[in-house]
Design goal:
Layout (H helix, E strand, L loop, with lengths): L1 H19 L6 E3 H4 L4 E2 L21 E3 H16 L3 E6 L4 H10 L20 E7 L28 H16 L2 E3 L6 E4 L14
Parallel strand pairs: 2-4
Antiparallel strand pairs: 1-3, 4-5, 5-7, 6-7
Bound molecules: zinc ion.
Length: 202
């Protein structure tokens, strides 16, 4: 009886720290780490290139360390008068298969046989908004699989080049690697330590 009381007491004392001590590899909701980052989960709406709702719930998950680094980008970018707006983060592998099947432009979607860095919770699709929440002109829309999304696209205005440069420079400062084909996509530099998952939040 006495042992049981001691065990219960220990559990009561240590349960909060057990619950809140998450490893860096844990998947976390971005809004729990930084509610000031705007999210617009396109795959939870029909406003994406497939025209279909792929995520039944508009949540955005990332690995804990990735979310924390993104929060550092947000703090920095806010000093410049902007905010981050995130379109996608962790993406279950089974959804990667749907995207792969839905696109003819295979060079823009990672083959699910290999697993995308999104499937590891270590990639983000992100843009910048101004103080009023209006998206900055990046020269092409998120997921528009065209030459204009490339980093070296010809015909980009000076304003677009400047906006992309602010986003890319800020992300790089905090460990995110840009993608030359998609201005919105960034891989976290430590992606290799995270495995491909098919966990779903719905
Ligand atoms: Zn992406």
């Amino acid at each position: 009886m006495k042992t049981q009381v001691v065990l219960i007491l220990l559990l009561v004392i240590f349960l909060p720290s057990l619950l809140y001590c998450q490893p860096d590899t844990a998947l976390v909701r971005l809004r729990d780490i930084d509610p000031s980052i705007r999210i617009d989960v396109r795959y939870a709406t029909t406003n994406n290139f497939t025209g279909k709702i792929l995520y039944p719930g508009a949540e955005l998950y990332l690995r804990k360390e990735v979310a924390e680094r993104l929060s550092e980008v947000q703090a920095f970018i806010m000093m410049l008068g902007f905010r981050l707006k995130v379109y996608d983060g962790y993406r279950p592998l089974s959804i990667q298969k749907i995207l792969w099947d839905a696109t003819k432009e295979k060079k823009y979607v990672v083959n699910p046989a290999n697993g995308s860095k999104h499937n590891r919770g270590a990639a983000v699709d992100v843009t910048l908004v101004d103080a009023k929440g209006k998206e900055l002109d990046m020269g092409s829309e998120f997921d528009s699989f065209s030459e204009m999304s490339n980093s070296d696209a010809k015909g980009l205005s000076e304003n677009v080049k400047k906006n992309r440069d602010i986003l890319t420079s800020a992300m790089q400062m905090f460990g995110f690697v840009p993608n030359s084909r998609e201005w919105w996509h960034f891989d976290y530099e430590g992606w290799k330590k995270y495995s491909v998952l098919d966990w779903k939040w719905w």
